[in-house]
Amino acid sequence: ISKNAILEERRKECFRNSRSINCNFDIDDENNLKLSKMAKEFVDKFQSFKKEGKGLLLFGNTGTGKSFISACIANALIDRGYTCLFTSFSLLANSFQDNRYNKQDIIDNINSYDLLIIDDLGTELINSFTNSKLFYCINQRLLNNRSTIISTNLTLPQLMDAYSERIFSRISSSYKVIRMFGDDIRLTNK
Question: How remote is the C-alpha of 137 from its chain's centroid?
Fold first, then answer.
């Protein structure tokens, strides 16, 4: 099996064949140069981020490039031999509710990835069940020195109100928090 075939399989596993599979720094217009540099620095220093279980919290309005830059990071890390999973918390929460799956197996699977990207946090139904599963997921990744990127349209106060203080505390103390500014690029690129 060639290196390219292995990388292609890792991309398919990471993105589950979504459009994000094609996002990379080569197509980044660097409209937000500071963000682009930060993302490349995250990739370059990933080993130390991973060793400490550190991550990123990207928050801001819809369409500011949070998912795109997260996917660029994942693809760059895959090129360097790391394993990544790009998913939504809705999908993770659904797998915890599905009785066909052992809950510890789900966490073990999530922790098997060097980088977990939870895209669009806050779009799922937020209740005590999803709160407990999000805490468990984030806490287990921190305890196992696994890096995580979370993107959300929620502001920091909204994030704290929607989820428990314990979750917010872990995110704010272990993640680099980055606010994304700008217009919805999906609307301006039409």
Answer: 12
Residues (pLDDT < 70) of the chain are 17, 182-190
> How much is the pLDDT for 17?
65
Q: Give a three-class secondary structure readout of the chain.
A: CCHHHHHHHHHHHHHCCCHHHHCCHHHCCCCCHHHHHHHHHHHHCHHHHHHHCCEEEEEECCCCCHHHHHHHHHHHHHHCCCCEEEEEHHHHHHHHHCCCCCHHHHHHHHHCCCEEEEEEECCCCCCHHHHHHHHHHHHHHHHCCCEEEEEECCCHHHHHHHCCHHHHHHHHHHEEEEEECCCCHHHHCC
Separation between Cα atoms, residue 181 and residue 141, nearest integer Å: 28
Confidence at residue 125, expressed as pLDDT on a 0 to 100 scale: 81
**CA 148 – CA 56 distance, rounded (Å):** 7
In Å, how far from its chain's centre is CA 145? 15
Output the pTM of the full model. 0.90
pLDDT at 189: 53
6: tokens are 């292995």
Which pLDDT tens digit goes with each residue over 10-22?
Answer: 999 999 867 889 9
Q: Which of 97, 146, 143 is nearest to 117 (CA)?
A: 146
